[in-house]
Amino acid sequence: MFTPDQYQLLDFGEGRKLERFGQFLLDRLSPAAETARCSHRPQWREAACRYQRTDGDRGVWHPANVLPATWTISHGACTFELKPTDFGHLGIFPEQAENWDWLATQIAARPAAKVLNLFAYTGGSTLASAAAGAEVAHVDAAKNVVQWARRNAELSGLSEAPVRWLAEDARKFVRREVKRGSQYDLIVLDPPSYGHGVKGQVWRVDQHLPDLLSDLRTLSTDDAAILLTCHSPGLGPVELRQMLERHYFGRRMPQIEARPLSILAADDRRLPSGILARWSP
Q1: Which phi and psi (to 5°) does residue 100 adopt?
Q2: Per DSSP, which regions of the chain are E strands?
């Protein structure tokens, strides 16, 4: 997990969350906190910057020009470059930290492990896997995001690690790997609800995830571990477990761990932050 000086959720409520990212205290939107009440209102006045939605899914940071163009935080051996975006994101999803620790444990038990990381964003799982000694295929449709992930690898001292950086459509890449007869020891995927591939291919998680999981089964070694996370309305722990059982394993698997992802706040409350389903032998 993160040390408090690198990342900490200080408070949340009324549709917002107050977080520390390194030296900056930030006030951001949080739909998951709509029905919660803030527990320490005076602390919110200390925020260096507040993100406010202005048009659709875009918004502004206020006051403007307070945050630097980039800054960094670390998780273990991995360093992440952060930057404020129009969407309110910074380039990292802190709730994934527990999964990075889980991946490191899995790789420690698998010498020379090969990891496939799909919808890989800025590379948290890729960095955690590479730092633990794995060979990684990092796949994301957004070229600029793949470049951001490579920058994170450089900052983490992993520029020479055995990582393939691939700006490709996940489904297309997986189908090509199936034809090649490739095999992976760990499968990681964090699919969006909706998106587009490199050439405009439409992705809808409810329509396309089942077939992708079926193809991933073909790419998996007999004892491969799998980590599936999701932030899509309508897909809870039960639904993700059932998808894995039906389309990846082809049978009921009572050992699948399926539960909400959350971030522990400073006052010991938990902010819901998606769903995970994972399995290891």
Answers
A1: -65, -40
A2: 7-13, 16-21, 24-29, 49-55, 58-62, 71-75, 78-82, 114-118, 135-140, 163-167, 184-189, 194-196, 202-204, 220-230, 257-264, 270-279
**79, 152 Cβ separation under 8 angstroms:** yes
11-27 pLDDT tens trace: 999 999 999 999 999 99
Find the farthest-apart pair of alpha carbons in the chain and give their distance in angstroms, rounded: 58
Q: What is the pLDDT of residue 253?
A: 87
Residues 235-266 pLDDT 10s: 999 999 999 999 999 988 879 999 999 999 99
Q: Calculate ∠ Cα 88-126-19, nearest 5°.
A: 30
CATH: 3.90.45.10, 3.40.50.150, 3.30.360.10, 1.10.530.10. Which one for 94-279? 3.40.50.150
CA-closest candidate to residue 158, choices 92, 257, 74: 74
Cα separation, 82 vs 79, whole angstroms:
10
Domain boundaries, given as residue ranges, for the chain: 7-82, 94-279
Q: How far apart are CA 270 and CA 266, in angstroms?
A: 9
7-82 CATH fold: Immunoglobulin-like (2.60.40)
